[in-house]
Each structure stands twice: as structure tokens, then as C-alpha cells.
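Slide 14.
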Amino acid sequence: MTNDLQASSSCCSTSAPNPAAAGNGQENLLGGMSDDMTTCPVMVGSPVSKNAAEATGLYRDFEGERYYFCCAGCGPAFDSDPAGYAANMA
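Slide 15: predicted structure.
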């Protein structure tokens, strides 16, 4: 039941690829964060590869910081309230 709620409320239910899953799909996203990994400020807790997000344009710069997104739907959401979403990363 929880998965149904997440799927219906997720901005990431688009067909855009998740940059965290880029590559061969064999990355261990639960084994800790490498320098390349961060989390999405919109879908808090969703892992994001910085390199993959930059390669696909899934990022925004706000007040001197770069924020990386897990999917194409998160950029427009971030644009609607960048200060609020940036606070998620503090």
C-alpha cells in the first residue's frame, strides 16, 4: 500500500531515465555516498549521480550551489520554490 502512495505522488513517474540508474544498472546505491552521489532535493532521499544528472541536464544552480535531480519532473518543481527545496538539503 505504501508503494502505491509513493508512485502516485511521485514527480518521478515520468518516462525520463533516473540518472542514478545510468550505466549498466549495477551501481550499489545503498552502500554509501561516493563523491559523485547526492540526493534529490525534491524527492528527498532519492539517490542521484551528479555526473549523470549533469549529462542529462537534470540540475539547477541556486544561490551559488548546484542541485541535482533524480528525474525530469523535479526541475520544474524546484523552479517553483527553489529556496524551499534548497532547505531540504541543509
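Speaker note: Confidence is low (pLDDT under 50) at residues 1-8, 19-31.
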